[in-house]
């Protein structure tokens, strides 16, 4: 079962920065006050944070290892850090592109490739992450997770053949130490999805109720993980961890989480937790098991 992140005392958590100034010719990609993001030529410019150098180091490792679905690091300069722009469809529109089995399988395969590349990463300089965790994991099975592999952070190129259209995984600001199941649980939470109609129809654009157990089985087979109680527990734990993290970071004054709670997002996420709890029995031992290396 996936463990929730321990955010630790406030004194150990890095402080955030929100300074990014658009220059002439820049394209605003995200206008949030807490995290403005602009496209500057072929670079995406984010506000600099204390963990920016760690994310840059992670992206450099991925690039050196031949993982081509992550942005290339562009360096940290002044009050911003840059990464390469990946052409394609992302954000809200990308959420509508995960309806098919083929898309679910592509997400699983990309996540598996990332985990395989990152699991042996041992940088010379100890990284520090957004939640105060350090390093790359000191326990068996731990690695650096993407932390936010939701449909909105995928990049698709629909000019490519079906089954080869997923070309990017972006927004690495929530990278931190976890396990493979940490990322898998998060991804399945929003892909299966274990949420009500307001999400699967309103966000993913699915015309009919999703076959959740089937979609979980497709993901499990494509990734090469057993579809068992541990996998179901990981999805449930991801939902619970998301709620707790929002509460903890808001208590520490993180602008994004404060704004989300003010907008009612905490109640929506708690409803998702409650929705899953009422239906937990439907996902127990879902489908058949798949050999780990399938």
TrEMBL record:
Residues 143-191 form the Aminoglycoside phosphotransferase domain. The keyword Secreted does not apply. It comes from the Bacteria. GO terms for molecular function: transferase activity. This is Phosphotransferase enzyme family protein. Keywords: Transferase. The keyword Ribosomal protein does not apply. It comes from Microlunatus flavus.
């Amino acid at each position: 079962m996936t463990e929730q992140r321990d955010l630790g005392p406030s004194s150990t958590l890095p402080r955030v920065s929100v300074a990014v100034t658009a220059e002439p010719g820049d394209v605003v990609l995200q206008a949030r006050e807490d995290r403005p993001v602009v496209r500057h030529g072929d670079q995406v410019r984010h506000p600099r944070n204390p963990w920016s150098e760690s994310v840059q180091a992670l992206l450099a490792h991925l690039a050196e290892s031949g993982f081509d679905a992550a942005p290339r690091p562009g360096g940290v300069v002044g009050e911003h850090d840059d990464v390469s722009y990946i052409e394609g469809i992302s954000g809200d529109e990308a959420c509508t592109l995960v309806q098919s089995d083929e898309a679910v399988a592509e997400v699983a395969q990309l996540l598996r490739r990332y985990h395989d590349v990152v699991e042996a990463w041992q940088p010379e300089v100890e990284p520090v992450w957004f939640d105060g965790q350090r390093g790359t994991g000191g326990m068996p099975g731990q690695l650096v997770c993407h932390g936010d592999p939701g449909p909105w952070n995928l990049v698709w190129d629909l000019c490519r053949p079906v089954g080869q259209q997923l070309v990017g995984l972006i927004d690495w600001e929530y990278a931190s130490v976890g396990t493979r199941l940490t990322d898998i649980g998060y991804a399945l939470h929003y892909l299966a999805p274990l949420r009500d109609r307001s999400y699967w129809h309103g966000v993913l654009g699915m015309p009919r109720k999703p076959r959740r157990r089937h979609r979980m089985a497709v993901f499990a087979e494509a990734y090469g993980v057993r579809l068992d109680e541990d996998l179901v527990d990981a999805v449930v734990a991801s939902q619970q961890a998301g709620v707790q993290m929002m509460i903890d970071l808001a208590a520490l004054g993180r602008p994004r989480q404060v704004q989300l709670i003010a907008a009612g997002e905490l109640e929506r996420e708690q409803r998702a937790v409650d929705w899953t709890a009422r239906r937990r029995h439907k996902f127990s031992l879902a489908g058949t098991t798949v050999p780990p290396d399938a």
